[in-house]
Design a protein that fits this description.
Ribosomal Protein S5, domain 2, HSP90_C, 4 domains, chaperone
Length: about 625
């Protein structure tokens, strides 16, 4: 057996200042040291499994469990494994030469045998040196798996460029990494602090991790299995494991691709309703079952951030950075692949069971609309299954239409003089009921667009769909919303119309209100209040963006439309000029405000009193 020689030397690096750089800048969060060391321990265990499968290791694998222990008195943390271990020469090669990747050399050596390299996690290089972010001395006690010509060795470094290798007492193969914590890092001696880090980064590592007498990880999460092995209950159970207090998901997508990049994972569709913000950043990114981050903005398209679940790709390194994610070609391919898979899944669900799809649309509509807004490739597929919901009900349920179906449904009756199909919509079915019912009396259909992003969605549809325009049902009179070039005759003379307008302008006396007299059917309201579609839409989008804008700061410029053909208009004209006439005009205006839920406070109280007086 080759004896370990006492040796002192200097670590092979190019700058004396490498350790301060590691301590401050290698990772933004010092807790990452534990992820790196445990990953290396798992890596060493996985390598031994590979060697055994290749026939290069014939010994007993035994228990390959990785253990993490803490000694508060000695102020040490120890990470132990029973993997391949190292010889003294390998310590000098892999540890002393910073950034030399043991995993890279291993894969190169066995590249013909190790076609599947997903099991090899890490770098015994810079990742190992993350230990010096929290420790002022690090020891390695290790023994190689090789049975002949090897002896246990001990490596010690105090955070300077100097190291020492000496013989060690260790009868079994494997490695102990012992961290002597620095004074400013003693928080990591607390059991719950360590448990939290291990559960965050290692809960799905492929080798059992033992801490405080318990195994803390699930070594075979569902994304590592074939969908054929899994039941619906398995997927739901895993979702609860990830998000213990969430409602059951609607459905899910199992991702599995090995060319031109490696990617596995499961993405869940949560019940979104109109919840646009608080559920974001729920997708967890892993690399070979090691947790990296839940900030996956550049890996996953922005609209898919509304999904939940796990993505695992060995093509994404552990020390991932935003700049890497933004520039990496594999990440861009992953981004496009996930978009395509999600669109295909939704399309399959729509075709397989449309009724069930419609029942889920309340929850997934926000997601689909957001995808249409932000991704042209998603739009190409989503335009076939995105739905418009009509306020009209059939057998107690709302009617849904695809874009093409809806055009066919309304174009005969809702095409204006410019040959544009006009889609009338409501944002609040109850508040806008009077306007919706007026439209339905004319035989017009009204869709419900009450989603938080619908103002942007409407603009997008108008730009993508030919000869279609959207108008809110209370944005103008119906004859102007769907202008067919026909003019209704007025029962009032021009002089009476002018007089009626003057009465209302005097009563209202508000520069933010524009009064007009129009000839409308007698079954319409005597007075209607509208906010022009363009201005309303701009203000809605400004409110959604959360930013102050020109339109957001503009006062509401309402139109007050008096129906010349309504009998009450003639009654206003025939009333005694002065207080009686103005009182009646004010009552009709307040009635219009009430129909829009705009009559409040003292004005509402006064309206109620006038009404009581009239009825008394």
């Amino acid at each position: 057996m080759e004896a370990v020689q006492n040796e002192k030397g200097q670590i092979s690096i190019h700058t004396e200042n490498i350790f301060p750089i590691i301590k401050k800048f290698l990772y933004s969060d010092h807790e990452i040291f534990l992820r790196e060391l445990v990953s290396n321990a798992v890596d060493a265990s996985q390598k031994l499994k590979k060697l055994a499968s290749f026939g290069d290791f014939n010994g007993e694998l035994g228990d390959l469990k990785v253990s993490v222990s803490v000694d508060k008195e000695a102020k040490t943390i120890t990470v132990s494994d029973r993997g391949i271990g190292m010889t003294a020469d390998e310590i000098k090669k892999y540890i002393n030469q910073i950034a030399f990747s043991g995993a890279a050399e291993f894969l190169d050596k066995y590249k013909d045998k190790a076609a599947d390299d997903k099991a090899i996690i890490g770098h015994f290089g810079l990742g190992f040196y993350s230990a010096f972010m929290v420790a002022d001395q690090v020891e390695i006690v290790t023994r190689s798996y090789r049975e002949e010509g090897t002896a246990a060795a001990r490596w010690v470094c105090d955070g300077s460029t100097e190291f020492e290798i000496t013989p060690a007492e260790r009868s079994e193969r494997g490695t102990d990494v012992i961290l002597h914590l620095a004074a400013d890092s003693e928080e990591f001696l607390e059991t719950e602090r360590l448990r939290g880090i291990l559960e965050k980064y290692g809960r799905f590592l492929p080798v059992e991790i033992e801490f405080d007498g318990k195994v803390i990880n699930n070594t075979t999460p569902i994304w590592t299995k074939s969908p054929s092995e899994l039941t619906e209950e398995d997927y739901k159970k895993f979702y609860q494991e990830l998000y213990p207090f969430s409602e059951e998901p609607l459905f899910w997508i199992h991702l599995n691709v090995d060319y031109p990049f490696n990617l596995t994972g499961v993405l869940y569709f949560p019940k979104l309703k109109n919840d646009f913000q608080i559920r974001r950043e729920k997708i967890q990114l892993y690399s070979r079952q090691v947790f990296i981050t839940d900030e996956v903005k550049d890996v996953v398209p922005d609209f898919l951030m509304l999904l939940h679940g796990v993505i695992d790709s060995p093509d994404i390194p552990l020390n991932v950075s935003r700049s890497f994610l933004q520039a990496d070609a594999n990440v861009k391919k992953i981004n496009g692949y996930i978009t395509r898979k999600v669109a295909d899944k939704l399309n399959d669900l729509f075709k397989a069971d449309r009724k069930a799809f419609e029942e889920k649309f309340e929850d997934i509509g926000l997601f689909i609309k957001y995808g249409i807004l932000s991704d042209d490739k998603f739009w190409e597929k989503a335009k076939e299954f995105c739905l418009l919901k009509s306020v009209e009900e059939v057998d107690g349920a709302n009617r849904f239409h695809t874009f093409n179906e809806y055009r066919e449904h309304v174009q005969a009756n809702q095409t204006d003089k410019n040959e544009n199909v006009v889609v009338l919509y409501a944002t609040d079915r109850k508040q806008q009921d009077a306007y919706v019912e007026s439209a339905r009396r004319r035989g017009y259909d009204v869709v419900l667009l009450d989603n938080v992003i619908d103002p942007h969605f409407i603009n997008t549809l108008e730009s993508k769909l030919e000869k279609i325009t959207f108008k809110r049902v209370d944005a103008d009179t119906l004859d102007k919303l769907i202008d067919k070039g026909l003019n209704n005759e007025s029962v009032l003379s021009e002089a009476d119309q002018t007089k009626l307008k003057e009465v209302f302008e005097k009563v209202l006396d508000n520069k933010s209100l524009t009064v007009s007299i129009e000839s409308m059917p007698t079954d319409e309201l005597p007075v209607t209040i509208t906010l022009p579609e363009f201005l309303r839409r701009m203000k809605d989008m400004s409110a959604l963006s959360g930013e102050r804008s020109f339109y957001g700061n503009m006062p509401n410029m309402y139109n007050v439309v008096v129906n010349a053909n309504h009998p009450l208009s003639a009654k206003v004209l025939s009333a005694e000029e002065g207080e009686a006439q103005q009182k009646l005009a004010k009552q009709l205006y307040d009635l219009a405000l009430l129909s829009q839920n705009m009559l409040t406070g003292a004005d509402l109280t006064a309206f109620v009193r006038r009404t009581v007086e009239t009825l008394a």
